[in-house]
Amino acid sequence: MRGMLVGAMLLAGLVAFPIWAQAADEPFLITLATRAVILALAAVGLNLALGQGGLVSLGHAAFFGIGGYAMGILASHAQSYAPLMEWPFVIEGTRSMPVIWLVAVLASALAALGIGALSLRTTGVYFIMITLAFGQMLYYFAISWTAYGGEDGLSIYVRNGFPGLNTLVPIEFYGLCLVILLVVLAFHAALIRSPFGLALNAARQSPERVRTVGIDTRRLQLAAFVLSGAITGLAGALFADLNRFVSPSMLSWQMSGEIMIFVILGGAGRLFGPVAGAIMFVALEHLLGGVSDYWHVFLGILLLLVVLFVRGGVIGLLAGARR
Amino acid sequence: MTLLALEGVTAFYGPAQALFGVDLSVGEGEVVALMGRNGMGKTTTVRAICRLIPARGGLIFDGHDLTALASHRAARLGIGLVPEGRRCFRDLTVTENLTAAARAGPWDRGRVEALFPPLADRRRQRAASLSGGEQQMLAIGRALMTNPRLLILDEATEGLAPLVRAQIWDAIARLRAESGMAILLIDKSVKEIAAIADRATLLERGRSVWSGAMTDLTPELTDRYIGV
Known about the structure:
Low-confidence stretches of chain B: none
Number of domains of chain B: 1
Structural class of chain A: mainly alpha
CATH class of chain A: Mainly Alpha
Shape of chain A: globular
Number of strands of chain A: 2
CATH class of chain B: Alpha Beta
Largest sheet of chain B: 6 strands, mixed
Structural class of chain B: alpha/beta
Order of helices and strands of chain A: HHHHHEHHHHEHHHH
Number of helices of chain A: 13
Distance between the termini of chain B: 32 Å
Mean pLDDT of chain B: 93
Distance between the termini of chain A: 8 Å
Shape of chain B: globular
Mean pLDDT of chain A: 94
CATH architecture of chain B: 3-Layer(aba) Sandwich
Oligomer: heterodimer
Helix content of chain B: 25-40%
Order of helices and strands of chain B: EEEHEEHEHHHHEHEHEEH
Strand order of the largest sheet of chain B: 6-7-8-3-9-10
Strand content of chain B: 25-35%
CATH topology of chain B: Rossmann fold
Radius of gyration of chain B: 17 Å
């Protein structure tokens, strides 16, 4: 009950803050909030694999980056009027966000299917290492992919469009991102209460016991990993659109680490944990980043305190233990 | 008709051999007891049947060779396991434990709660917070939710208070009378088993040493192989 109350307050804050920023004529703060919402979405994706499934993936930046590059590639071709592919059929670039999101979700889901199918043959520290290796593989591929900017990345001049909205207006783009986050959170909430989600949770506790009730745990975890990758990929497309820029850094292991920090800081396995974690991260980055270049030290101390003393992250601290 | 048939089953834990030749059969609707002292291979036999450890020899369930199957496929054929030590999903509620295991068939939550009324009063309680007896009821209920054709109960009454043990035995008797489900019982309570089982198989050092009707199980045999 307290968990829902904390979640509702968090969401109320996400609605109220940009309205206040708009009234105060602070568009930069709206962009900052947009960044928090998009990073929260990426972390909600990881939370499905990490929090619910116990799959400690240190390669989720791969999906974040694939989503980003899906946006960058499609939009850059639309920008240059050069088709993406001419044979055997013509594929043009696009500036339509819904089409870009669909491509980002499908591409990152497909990548998650391949990476997950191989990685889930291992467990524990080997799973962490193999997901990290896949992430780094894609990172170095992006660096060498000069057709799409290589190390310098890819810039898009104008933010992509969404029917009925002017996405260049910060609060309109923010609203769009927030609605997507809310829809994904609602989907996540329904999923964790479904037999699929319950079995996934049970498999985290004991895969053997889940197998004895007739469930193929590897297929279950693979499905969760694919969904998780797809959500993080969608966040990647939005993040690239926010910055109008995509670069290999979106695929780096540091990015994977940051997404994991959002989840752990906010509360792994808690519905609103990744949202709280991402907001805290962006707020600290903004507030402490102005004071010192070494603000990550303070983040590190905070993370240590949370891991050592608070079970269930910040949401656990505010809402108490699970159930 | 024979539902489960084991013939000369051997199994290993790494390099250590645990089963040296187990013969066992359970017919449709039959209740069979697998008995023996601690460490004689009862749970290992159950783990071999459920494909939780690799095993060799004849392992046939309803015409299917179990040795070729993964554990979840064996379960889907209709083998329901209530593992030793209960082992519910601790972080899930009673209802969630039952829902996570559910497969279509005559057993649903309502029927499980009718068999174990205490579970109906604890629906929203986490499994970890239940008493030992309630956890055992939940473990049996979870196995029933998979709608098995063979229910394997591994030490279902171990470590429970006498009153709770009586409740569990009563539920097993009702299961037998009402559902006609085949049951493989692993337990050391000869008196209770004698009242419920049709046949018994005795294990000694990883081998089946005696099989026969419960009525033929003499005090000499129980003294020698079960130690009671």
